Structure of Addiction module antitoxin:
Amino acid sequence: MLLIAWSKGALRDLEDITTYIAVDNEAAAEQLRERIEESVLPAAAHPYLFRPGRRNGTREVVAHPNYIVVYRVLADRIRVIAVIHTRRRYP
């Protein structure tokens, strides 16, 4: 089982998303945060479970119809590198 490590950028993405949603609905923002965080958990046991990413060496989890979690599989961990809204331009 691999450790899941969130990059500073991915944590910032998650914080920005939940802050934006919390303006209208704090409960929905917290539920979405949990959903996004939990979406990547299966990758700890099965790193290649989710689809290959659009950038070489990445993989993607569709955490919600509007949000994709992008990660890399490293030797000792899963490194979450971004949380992206589906309507935004892919980095």
About this structure: The helical segments are 8-22, 26-39, 42-45.
